[in-house]
Amino acid sequence: MRTIIIGLIIVLSYFLLKSIIKKNKIANKKDKNIMKYCDYCKSYVTEDEPCINKDANHKNL
User: Fold this and answer.
1) Of 11, 29, 31, 38, most Cβ neighbours within 10 A?
2) 55 and 48 in contact (C-beta within 8 Å)?
3) What's the pTM?
4) CA-to-CA distance for 58 and 46, rounded, in angstroms?
């Protein structure tokens, strides 16, 4: 009986830790889209978006 309870605790803690790690990975992916202010566009844009008024990207802001 004790071994069953210990086994269940180990399995539940495994799934709990797995879900916590997965949430942290999703949060880290969202942080990659950093918003910056572009003086040419007069708006906040990400580095991946092309500039509207110039033929340049926003990585150099």
Assistant:
1) 38
2) no
3) 0.40
4) 7
Task: Tell me the residue range of the domain where 8 lies.
Answer: 1-30
Query: Are residues 5 and 17 located together in one domain of the fold?
Result: yes
Instruction: Check whether residue 2 and residue 23 sit in a common domain.
Output: yes
Q: Could you give the CA distance from residue 46 to residue 36 in angstroms, rounded to a whole number?
A: 6
Domains identified in the chain, total number: 2
Q: Does 42 share its domain with 57?
A: yes
Please count the CA atoms within 13 angstroms of the CA of 61 that sit on its side-chain side. 23
Q: Which two tokens mark 21?
A: 């790690």
Residue type present at position 49: E
Q: What is the pLDDT of residues 21-40, one digit of tens each?
A: 776 666 555 556 777 787 77
